[in-house]
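During the no-cost extension, the postdoctoral fellow (Dr. R.K.) reprocessed legacy sequence entries with the updated structure-token encoder. One reprocessed record is reproduced below for audit purposes.
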Amino acid sequence: MMMKTEKLILCEEWDKTFPKSNKVDHSKVTFTNRYGITLAADLYIPLNAKEKFAAIAVCGPFGAVKEQSSGLYAQAMAERGFLTIAFDPSFTGESGGNPRYMASPDINTEDFQAAVDFLSVQDNVDPDKIGIIGICGWGGMALNAAALDTRIKATVTSTMYDMSRVNANGYFDESDSADARYAMKKTLNNVRTKEYKTGIYSRAGGCLPYPAPEDAPFFVKDYSAYYKTERGYHIRSLNSNEGWNTIGTMSFINQPILQYSNEIRSAVLMIHGEKAHSCYFSKDAFADMVKDNPYTDNKELFIIPGAVHTDLYDRMDVIPFAKIEKFFRENLE
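Re-encoded structure tokens follow.
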């Protein structure tokens, strides 16, 4: 059966939250996942290079768009000699998929695999030298993809979230009980019934207005200071605006995405800030990944002293690009 690509309306102006580099060529591309959803991506290619490239697909954070952190990472890695793409996940940004503002542990893992499909058939890419970078919630999806896709030779996660864990247990596992999950599922399923009657999906709300209230937790203030200011605001970003659909992420509650992470044989570098509220996700996921895994020599957890969660979204003086470059050069050769 022939795969069909949906015609997407793509913005051709530079509308990123970061400045355009004069060291790379930039263009828009599209590709299709196995569910028939057409994804939009920014392609970054080093200038004046003629050899076949090692390639990297980048996505995240969860609820962001490619004009934010993932594009910054992709452009920075292209400046370092890799062919890169930063893509919008299904149902978000410039990518296809309806209804909008939904998420799925399966489909979003597939989005990474579809990006690998695309890179694997490019004439200027070496198909044996493909890696991925997942930021925030897409760090978990990246690990899940690495556990499934043997074409992925190296994976970097940055300020990772395990979206299954946070949806099922709440922040810091404060709601980790069967009763708490039952109450949450009951609420969400009541919303489903109501919204099916009206035919309209409600939105859960993005970050709080800036500045966040004084009594808000630090991580809420951290997100608000990125997504709601000139630093990181984007009109297509869920987190900058009305957020996911109220029921948009509910399937993560009982679909763990890191079940087989300790079967990952390829190289993995997990990066997190010491002061990030989310650091426990990376520490625990790394421990699970290396437990009873005979392939641990190519696995590393790298903690950055003093860094908070969103420092790894866009702080060029904090994100360890030199280390990321070295990791990919060593593992994509």
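The longest strand covers residues 125-135. The chain is about 30% helix and 20% strand. The remaining legacy entries will be reprocessed before the final report is submitted.
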